[in-house]
Amino acid sequence: MRDVGIPDAGPPPAIDYSIWQLQLPTGSGTSPTTVPPNQLATFSNIYFYKADDGGQVFMSPATGITTPNSTRCRTELRESNPQDDEAA
After folding, report:
1. CA nearest 78: which of 39, 37, 38, 48?
2. Are residues 54 and 62 in contact, defined by beta-carbon separation less than 8 angstroms?
3. In principle, which of 2, 60, 75, 79 could form an S-S bond with 87, CB 3.0–4.6 Å?
4. What is the pLDDT of residues 40-70, one digit of tens each?
């Protein structure tokens, strides 16, 4: 049953992945797996996938690879520059 006070927003807008790289809680040591911007539109795994409604799902496990200055693993989009390096 739809609440008549809330209009249907429709599907979420498309995400522009061109300035993002994905960091996953997998990898080796303190080097997480990263996925470059040119692969994100079609990339999918258990930590990063499209929802049935077209939205983007992120999932982080309780344990996994962390970066050198972090104690928690994560799945995140990190801003990058045109060379696919991390932005300053």
Report:
1. 37
2. no
3. 79
4. 989 999 999 999 888 899 999 999 999 888 8
